[in-house]
Specification:
- It comes from Limosilactobacillus ingluviei.
- InterPro entries: DNA-dir_RNA_pol_omega, Pol_omega/Rpo6/RPB6, RPB6/omega-like_sf.
- Belongs to the RNA polymerase subunit omega family.
- The protein is mainly α.
- The chain has a domain of about 60 residues.
- The chain contains three helices and no strands.
- The longest helix is centred in the N-terminal third of the chain and has 26 residues.
């Protein structure tokens, strides 16, 4: 169960629980990839491309887990759903 941030506060940023779950899941995967790549870059002699990674958006997190961190970013209004996503075929 989520205690912080509260679901009521999160739903002020996202219009449905389903959208909240999908957004938090996607952002949590981005956070995991960023943290893994950053750790690999610091501990490896080989270059690691961090250019495609999405960095952390808050200076301080209450949660150490990626899902909790994603929810904190959503509550802060730093992550939202793109209502008009562009596809690579559109130009």
């Amino acid at each position: 169960m989520i205690l912080y941030p509260s679901v009521d506060e999160l739903l002020k940023q996202v219009d449905s629980r389903y959208s909240l779950i999908m957004l938090a899941s996607k952002r949590a995967h981005e956070i995991d990839k960023y943290r893994t790549d950053k750790d690999r870059a610091q501990n490896s002699d080989k270059p690691v491309d961090l250019e495609q990674d999405k960095p952390l958006l808050l200076n301080r997190y209450n949660s150490t887990k990626s899902v909790g961190m994603a929810l904190e970013e959503i509550e802060a209004g730093l992550v939202s759903i793109d209502e008009n996503p562009s596809t690579p075929d559109e130009d």
